[in-house]
Amino acid sequence: xxxxxxxxxxxTMAEVRAGVDALDRExxxxxxxxxxxxxxxxxxxxxxxxxxxxxxxxEVIANAGAHAERLGLPRQAIEQLWETLVEASIxxxxxxxxxxxx
Length: 102
Prior knowledge:
The chain is mainly alpha-helical. It has one domain: Chorismate Mutase Domain, subunit A, CATH 1.20.59. The protein has three helices and no strands. The N and C termini lie far apart (46 Å).
């Protein structure tokens, strides 16, 4: 397996691809933890209608966009990714909420 380099140290596409693949594995691991919080929310929220919270959704997306912008990333692109992530999280939480309450 190729050594993983920092992006600025990559000199070949093999190094770039190895770095991307390694980072993707880390991102999925982090998403596993994030979805764990969705399971916790499903367990804690007393009523199903509370699963979707549009104000919180907007806050999470805006926070991600602002943080991305501070780091020099394109805010709109990150906010679009987070829109998808948050919607998937809501769907997962609703599924877990229903499963817990049969």
